Every structure is written in structure tokens, then in C-alpha cells.
Amino acid sequence: MVLFGDNCSNLNSFSIMSYKILSVWLCFSLCSIAFAQNSFQIKGFVRNANTLQPIEGANIVGEGLFSISSVAGAFTIKNVDEGTYSFTISHISYAPKTVTVIVESEIEIVQVYLNESSTVLEEVEVHGKSKYRKVKETPIVSHTVSKEFLDKNRENSLMQTLSKIPGVSTINIGSGQSKPVIRGLGFNRVAVIQNGIKHEAQQWGNDHGLEIDQYGIENIQIIKGPASLVYGSDAIAGVVDIQPNKIPLQNSFNGEVNILGESNNNLLGISTSIEARKEKWFYRGRLTYRDYGDYKVPTDKINYENYIFELQDNNLRNTAGKEANASFSVGYVSDYIKSETFFSTVNAKNGFFANAHGLEVRTSSIDYDRSNKDIDLPFHKVNHFKIMNNTSVIMGKHTFYFDLGYQKNHRKEHSEPVPHGYMPKPPNSKEREFNKNTYSLNMRDAFKPNKHHDVVAGINVEYQDNNIGGWGFLIPEYNRFTIGVFAYDQFEIHPNLHFLAGIRYDYGLVDTKSYYDWFLSTTNNNDGSKSYIYLQRAQNKTLDFGNISASAGLSYIQKNTTYKLNIGKSFRMPLANELASDGVNYHMYRFEKGNLDLDPEESYQLDIDIDHTTKQFSVGISPFVNFFENYIYLNPTSNYYETLQIYEYTQAKIFRFGGEVRASTTLFKNLQLDASAEYVYSKQTSGAKKNFTLPFSPPLSGLFSANYQFKDFLFLAKPKLIADFRITAAQNEIVPPEEKTEGYQILNMSFLTKMAIFKNNQPIEIRVKLNNVFNTKYYNHTSFYRLIDVPEAGRNLSISLTIPLINN
Amino acid sequence: MIVIASCSNDDSIDKDEEKPTISVNYNEGFPQGCTQLTRGETYNFRAKVTDNKVLASYSIDIHHNFDHHTHDDQTTECDLEDVKQAINPFIFIENYSIENELTSYEINIPVTIPNDIDTGDYHCAYSVTDETGWQARTSIDVKIIE
After folding, report:
1. CB-CB neighbours of A530 under 10 Å
2. Domains of chain B: which residue ranges?
3. DSSP 8-class letter at A152
4. Chain B residues with CB inside 8 Å of A641's CB?
5. Alpha helical stretches, state H, A78-214
6. Residue from A765, A707, A750, A804 nearest A118 by CA
7. Strand partners, A552
8. What DSSP character marks residue A139?
9. Residue in chain B nearest A639 by alpha carbon
10. Residues forming beta bridges with residue A361, ordered by sequence position
11. How many CA atoms within 13 Å lie on the side-chain side of A695?
């Protein structure tokens, strides 16, 4: 245990907050350690008042005193003078208690019993700025996702798990892959950040899913609006910011294994982790393996246009997949420096529905039905490798943050070689290959000149090198360099009134490489003769872009109500495929044509968030209005290129509005009810599809949850039953080539409990989840397979066990 | 929600949400499923297309199906020959526009089957677009014989 000098006391206000680690860290960092001469000791134990179990990680804070309770609930405060001390013992799950100790003898032993409570937050407000308070103060409208939420709601992929949050939905590609959609916008309009570094893959692709291991994530911040100011291009519609995990406690060594089984696609998943810390050095590692078969849909045939695909045993043939991930990090934390270096590799192989990939109907001699576990053509394989370093250095009133990243995304799409148009039968199955290297450097300085200002200034630099291979051409090779500088200030006008304003400038350079077909095409000359040539699909071009982003907002806290208002302008640089595509997308049965004259997309958004939270209930509403000056849209034209419909990248003005409402209350102490609804209205107000909506527009949807907490029963601790009922309206707003989608109602049930098998050990966490209880056949308007009339997965029973391995 | 309702009403202003249609299922429609085409002959490929607003363009794509990579969407099932390698397959890839803002039209394109191409299973795909960008497709299994 460490003793702090007096100058630590003014920081104690920070420490009461729920985040024990951060508080340790802050105190380490900001306080000089002093050693007193008279060595009295205060020793004590913190226990749960009901169960008498020791409480680990409670903060013990008094004037110049600070300690944290160990696994055994013990704490020690050394080197105290004789006298009377008063300190507060607090923990995230318990109501805080203040005790007074008179120190006379060498060792004082104090017993503290804390009562469980879910509302320590008020206490926190009194003492100072918890994370919760900070979120309230910042005018940026965001949603924080905790580890608890992730554990409770874990689905097959990270984004499916997050889609329970109002305003967040996903584009699913089968059962194992998904990509984020925020308020109806996705692909490259949502930036996914991991440990401060933007995740860079082939996000533009229809059948691409996010390559991030969903296990081991503790904290995600979701911003549902333009956030280019801090995150740069691509954060035009929102951000999924996966934040670094908490640093392990001193002298701790923890590990756990999670085992997951699912009935619908015969999934078996196992993920195991360890983390340890001595004093200053820490490390953590995780291994994840998942293997799943074809998923089942509640239908025995798929009707797509005039085709009928019979399904064997409701299996959506060839949608099996597997995933193997590993990550390791090593870090150092001292008074003024914190640094962690993170290595990760994510490997996945996923099959695509055999009868139709995209819109393309296929027959094959492959016997897909011989097994529902194997992965035949067409499939893709992806590896995403990352090295990231996050370092922060505290120097007086400044904190400098450095994020350094290298990532390599290697993706291969294989399909049966088939001649198409003038293209003869290709020599192998490698249709497309993408090899993208991204180097990132972010630096920022958080500066607190006085009590009223929090100034942050920073720079982001990124370089991408994208290489292609395979016999299919869709996007050219390119290099891209971007640099952005930004600064913002959060000004405390009044403790309850905060103003934030910031500005950013970005410059980007895209260098596309030329590409010629590997086969000859027939072209008609003006004189009636024919030529046979290798068609040029992309040109050598260098394009540059510059853009200003800005944001301003107010936050006002009035007792239990928080009002936020934010207005922002964001931008997105056109992508290489938007600029320079010129090829057949066989899967989508279309010819995609880029446009070198595209301007950066610019978006203006007004966000409002009103939240009222009391002990008994909470309500909130977060409406938005959004306007795109020049949304880049892949427009289906009425023209053909070699018998394929031409889709052309164009720009259109877009008007959007919508928002989310949420309410929750606790009845009879044990029953918690939550309700939320989300809605987005989008309209193109100029261009070829004037008055039409945008592709993949999510329909109006509501989610009602009931959460009943039972009493402990035999060896089951905190058993909890959750029912989630989702009602989604029809989506009748469509744009070619979409189909209207009917509404649906789905019930999911889950049962969570903890099982304390071994005494003195952390309990085993058990979750049993039944998705789509009634095996309802329904269509998700934003699913990739919706295009070919494939319904969503049928009933699925999943069982998850989280077993603590070691706990010291 | 009141705002939402009032706003979504004004937006049903004459938005074309209908796909065109395409069919060879009438007496003169050509080719019908499993039709045999003889090398050296000229055939008139005929299909009826309609749209609620304005027809825009259509295409005809005749390509081999020697590898059985796809099948048609007609009700008939044709007997396919054994899988084989293409040497000099017939490829017919043409696009046409439909002028004069028509809502119904008959495609009628004479196609001569060359003498030197591979015989065997072929596939004939029609597609049509309307002015809005909606598309309809149909495809028919045919055979080219000596």
C-alpha cells in the first residue's frame, strides 16, 4: 500500500468514482509520494454487510489517506500520525460509508460493512467528477457500453451485440459477420476505433464484416452523430470507440475461460484470457476460437425472383465459418507515464450462401449438403493483424497522448471460376484479394490551464497502402495519406453549464493505380469493325482533398435532468472505389463506375439529448436533424454495360432526421423495465433518386425489456430472467434495387446467474439465452441476405459459461 | 412521432417504386425454355417488357453453360449435356435503349448463330430497366446444335 502526501487530498474527489483503476492511476500520476516518519498503521477489512464476503477494490479515502481493499477485503494505511481520521469507503456496487478512527496504538483494525446498492451515483456527484459526471458534462451526445452490457447481451458478433442500443443497427452477413450502422448510415461513414486507432479494412464492401474479437472488450463509447472533429474522416455518421481496458490491479493475477455453445448453427466458442500486474508492469493475453456450421432459417425454401432454392433441414447452405484470434499486450504504468503495446491477430473464414452470392444465382457440382460444418466455395478468408501502442505522459497541467498503430488487413474472396461476358473461365478460385497496410499516428495534448477549461489539441496522421489481386476487379490499388489537426475546449461556464467548441482541418491525398483486364474484350469501332483489347479499368490519378470540420455544444445539468445540444460539421474523403471503380461486381450483378470528380462528403447535424434520471426511473430522448451537402451514392442507372446494369457513384443532397427515446423503471425492487425506440427518416433531396430514401434504411423499431431479479436459490446467486421483445415496423421506404420489408415481432429470453462452486473463489457466470423463441420467420431490412429474400436465423439456444481460472 | 407521420406523408409524391416486367411466356416469345437453336440460322429473339412509367433499356446476353454454373428461372427443366470445356463458345452481349418513353414494348432482335461456335448448353438472359433504375431479369436455358 502506498501513502500519499497532503497534496493528494484535493484529488480524492476523483477517486470516489466507480473507476477504481483510474483513481489509482490519477493518484499515482498527480501526487508526489511522501513518506512520513511516525509509523502508525490503520488496518481494516471491507465486507459485504449481507453475505459477509470480502469486498475487493473498495476505495478508502480520507484527508491525505488512500488505499484499496485486496481480494481478501483487507486494506492497510501505513505511516499515519496519532490522531483522529475520518475516511470514506466506497465501491461501485455498494453504498459508501464514512468511518472515523482514532489512532493511538500501533495498529488499528477497522471492520467496515457495506450495503449493496445500485445508486452510489449521487454520492459520486457530491465528491467530484466521476466518469458518469463527465459524460453528463460534455455536450457530445454519446452512449457508453459497459462490460456488463456486453456480457449480458453477447451475440454472434460484436455489432449484433451492440444493436440492442437504440440508434445502432447492423448489416449482417450470415450469422458470424456484421458491420456497424448508426442511425441508418454504415460502411465507411462509421469509424470503428480500437485503442485510439481507426480500424482500417475493406469497410466499403457489402460482404465485409468487422474483424475485431468481441471478447475481452470492457468499454465502448458510441457517438451517434458526426464526430470528425476528434476522429477525422469517416466518422461522419458516428463512431464505435472501443477503449483500452482498465489496467489490472497491483499485484494481481487473473484469468478466465468463456465457453459458448449455440444450437442454431452448432457453434462452439472458447475464449480464454489472463492478465497480471506486479507493481508497474502488467500484461494481458487472450485466445479465442469459434467454429460454427450453417445457420438455420425458419423456412425450407428461398424464393428469389423466379428462382426457388430448396434448403436441406433449414440449413442456409455454406454459411459455416470459423474464427481464431489471439492478442497480447504488455504495459507499464508509473507516476507520470502509462504505456501499453498491443498485438492482435484476428483470423476468420466464412462461407457465403451457395445458391446466390449477392444477387448472383449459382449452381454447382459441389455437394454442399454433405455436411453443414464445412466451408466450400464461395468463401472469404481474412486476417487482420495489429500492433498498437498507447502512451500517455503527464507533465504539469499537460497530458500528452500518443497512439501509434500498424495494421495489416489481408482478405481473399474465393469463388468457383466461371466465365462471364468476355472473360473466359479464370484459372483458379481466387476472385479478389485485398492487402491493405495502414500506419497511424495520433498525438494530442490535454491541457487544463485552470479550473474552467479543458483544452485538447492534436494531430492525426495516417498512411494506407492498398494492394489488390485475383481475377475479379472492383477497386484499384491505391495509396492514401491523410493528416488532420484539431483543437477543442470544454469551458465550464458554471459547474452545471458546459460549453464545448472545436475546429479541425484535414488534408488528404489519394493516389490510384492503373489497372487493365487480364482478358480481351470485344469493342465496336466507329467504322463498324471490331477490336479486341485489354480494357483499362482504372487510371493513374493523384487527387487531393481538404476540409474543415467543426463542432459546438452546450450541456446543462439541472438536478436530475441533463440537457445537451450539439451542432457539428463533419466530412468524409471519397474512397478509392468511389473515385475509380470501373468493373463488374458479379455478386451484385452490376457494373460499378466511379467518379473522379467527387468532392468530400460534408454533413451538418444538430443533436439534442435530454435525460432525466432518478432513483426510481429514467427517461431520455435524443432527436437529431442532419443534412448532407453531397452524399456519395451508388446510383442504379437505367443503362447497361455489357448487359449489366450500370451503377454510378454520384452525389446528392440528403435530409435526415430521427432519434431515439428510452425509458426505464424499477418496480417492486426486483423488476426492471426498459423500453426504447429508434427511428430514422432519410430523403434524397436532389440528384437522380430525388425523393427516395437511402439504401439499407432501418425501419422504426422498439425494444421492450423486462428484467426480473430472483432471490439467491441454492447455489445460484443473483439469478435473473430477462425477456426482450422487439417490435419492428415495416420498411416501405426503399430505393432500387431494394424490396419492401414487412414488420416483425421477436421475443428473446435469457437467464443469467452466478454459481459459487468453490468457496473463496469468484463464481462461475452462466447465461442461457433463447433467441427467436417462436422461431418466427422474418426479414431484416438491413441484412446482406435480405437482397435475395433470405429470412433471419431461426430459434437459437445458447449457453455461455465464464469460469474464473485464477484470482490473486 | 407526430412529426414523423406528417413528414412521411408528403413524400409519397409520385415516387416510382415499381419494377418493370419481362416475359417470354406468350406465343411469339423466344426462346422458350429448352429451345434448340441450329448453327447458321437466324432467330428473332422476342420478349415483352412493360413498366408503370417509362421503359429505358434492355440487354440480351447469350453465354454457354457448359459447366452448369447456373440454371434458368423458367418452369421447364431441360436435360443438360455433360460438363465440358469451352473452346470457341458463342458470346452475344448487346445493350439497347428503348426510345419514346414507352410503357410497353416488344423486344425483337434478330440473332444469327455463327457456324464456327461450340454446340451445347447455352443460357439466354434478358434484362430491362426503367427510367428510375429498377431492373427485371429473366433467363432461359437453350441448346445450340449442329
Report:
1. 9
2. 18-145
3. H
4. 95
5. 121-127, 131-137, 147-153, 158-162
6. A707
7. A501, A567
8. S
9. B57
10. A356
11. 17
Q: Give the lowest-confidence range in A121-135, A343-357, A369-383.
A: A121-135
To test the contact with chain A by mutation, choose from B3, B68, B69 the residue with the greatest count of A C-beta atoms within 10 A, namely B69
Neighbours of A341 (CB within 10 A): 16
DSSP string for residues in A326-344: EEEEEEEE-SSEEEEEEEE
How many other β-carbons are positioned within 10 Å of the β-carbon of residue A229? 25
**From the candidate CATH numbers 3.90.1170.50, 1.10.10.10, 2.60.40.1120, 3.60.60.10, the one assigned to the domain spanning A6-130:** 2.60.40.1120
**A737: distance to nearest CA of chain B, Å?**
6
The ranges assigned to domains in chain A are 6-130, 142-807
Measured CA to CA, the distance from residue A60 to residue A108 in angstroms comes to 15
Task: Grade residue A481 by pLDDT with cuts at 50, 70 and 90.
Answer: very high
What confidence score (pLDDT) does residue A33 get? 34
Q: How far is A305 from chain B (nearest CA, A)?
A: 8
For residue A754, list its beta bridge partners. A717, A765
Per-residue cell: A310: 430448396
Which of A589, A498, A584, A503 is closest to A549 using CA atoms? A503
Residue A29 has pLDDT above 50, yes or no: no
Nearest to B95 by CA among B63, B126, B133, B137: B126
Query: A142-807 in CATH: which number?
Result: 2.40.170.20
Q: What value of ipTM does the predicted structure carry? A: 0.88
Q: Which among A446, A561, A557, A569 has a CA at the least distance from the CA of A492?
A: A557
Closest among A740, A720, A722, A744 to A732, alpha carbons compared: A740
- Top residue of A640, A661, A690, A733 to mutate, by most chain B CBs within 10 Å, is A640
Q: Do B17 and A691 touch (CB under 8 A)?
A: no
Please state which CATH number belongs to domain B18-145: 2.60.40.3880
**Separation of alpha carbons A136 and A439, rounded Å:** 34
Between A525 and A731, the more confident residue is A731
Tally of CA atoms within 13 A in the half-sphere of A595 that contains its CB: 15
Distances (CA, A) of A415 to A436, A518, A665: 21, 18, 51
Report the residue of chain A nearest B13, measured CA to CA: A691
Contact residues, chain A, for B1 at CB < 8 Å: 679
